[in-house]
Amino acid sequence: MMTFSIVTPHLNSGPWLPLCIESVADQQGVEVEHLIHDGGSSDGSLDELAARPGLRVTIAKDGGMYDAINRGLRAATGSLVAHLNADEQYLPGALAAVAAEFQKDPKLDVLLGYTVVVDAAGEFLCCRKSLKPLRLTRFTDNSTFTNAIFMRRSAVDRYGLYFDTTLRIISDAEWMLRCVTRPGLKMAVLRRYTSAFTETGANLDLTPGAFEESIEFTRRNPRWAKRLRPALKVFARLRRLALGGYRQRPFGYEIFTLADRSRRTRIEVLKPTCIWWTRAPRAAGSRYRWLKTMLGKVSGKRTSR
Prior knowledge:
Elements: E1 3-10, H1 16-25, E2 31-38, H2 45-50, E3 55-59, H3 65-75, E4 80-83, E5 88-90, H4 94-104, E6 110-118, E7 124-128, E8 149-152, H5 153-158, H6 171-181, E9 187-198, H7 208-220, H8 223-227, H9 229-242, E10 251-257, E11 260-269, H10 279-304
Helix pairs in contact: 7-10
């Protein structure tokens, strides 16, 4: 039997961490260790951790989320590893399905699954289907959620699949870019929903800091990628359309919710969409706050002269 090490970075996540823990604990047919790296929470969530048997909990100051994940990956003892943020969950049977794919192909290094995006109450917002990334579109198309990425532990060291801690919010984009360009690394897609991402309203990827890092990350791209960025985006979306990335039949999923932490709640989705309609206004708000901050800094410099 293949074993899993699931790493969860944590800092003051409020009520979300118990749901994450439950979704790992009830996985059937696999052996799992769940490593929680807490950076020094002060919201009482450590009391919740202390009451749960079977967890490997580390409490230590770190250099941010990706530093915590890297520490967890290095401490992992499982043959398969992944990381799951406190506001995310695994769906029933996800890890068993992942293990089966790795067992079928001993040369497989990284497996990508599908993600369901839900709101704070657990209701459906959209679904996100991973596609195997291409070298051509690696600078513009990073649609895989980190909660749906699974790695062979041996591949982490062989290909250096640790996260760049100089990027504190969008290091997963840089990580995927390295994966695509690593000679010999084999990646595949599991056409199954493995994970759920909760839009809590406080997600780091919708903060002004994330937008600022995104700009900096784009600046690192080669000149040809910057010039062809609009065309590459169009190509990536057309590819996604052709491969069914925007289509989904009615389906259901089961997650733990704040209303009922003791068991999974079944949600039926009669009219699914693969478009994250609520994301655009939130992202626009994030960019506005970032621009306002930048203008304030410029204005301050001018005034101080």
